[in-house]
């Protein structure tokens, strides 16, 4: 014990020890409550995004088809003019 830089450890008050454990427990409960709440909110957002993804993918596919058709038409015109 003589090699400790600040002397022997001091006994912590039971009130301080109780307060520390209380705040730790309260923090864990607070985090669990908010994690549960945010998980439910995120699940709803994922459902909405899944519905929108189908629509967005269909529009994207249609735009790609139009772009491909326009590119093919432009290439055909380039070949025809030569």
UniProtKB/TrEMBL annotation:
GO terms for molecular function: proton transmembrane transporter activity. Keywords: Acetylation, ATP synthesis, CF(0), Coiled coil, Hydrogen ion transport, Ion transport, Membrane, Mitochondrion, Mitochondrion inner membrane, Transmembrane, Transmembrane helix, Transport. The keyword Ribosomal protein does not apply. The chain crosses the membrane at residues 15-33. GO terms for cellular component: mitochondrial inner membrane; proton-transporting ATP synthase complex. Residues 41-78 form a coiled coil. Its main location: mitochondrion. GO terms for biological process: proton motive force-driven ATP synthesis. It holds the Pfam family ATP-synt_E. It is found in: Mitochondrion inner membrane. It comes from the Eukaryota. Belongs to the ATPase e subunit family. F-type ATPases have 2 components, CF(1) - the catalytic core - and CF(0) - the membrane proton channel. CF(1) and CF(0) have multiple subunits. Subunit e, of the mitochondrial membrane ATP synthase complex (F(1)F(0) ATP synthase or Complex V) that produces ATP from ADP in the presence of a proton gradient across the membrane which is generated by electron transport complexes of the respiratory chain. ATP synthase complex consist of a soluble F(1) head domain - the catalytic core - and a membrane F(1) domain - the membrane proton channel. These two domains are linked by a central stalk rotating inside the F(1) region and a stationary peripheral stalk. This is ATP synthase F(0) complex subunit e, mitochondrial. It comes from Euphydryas editha.
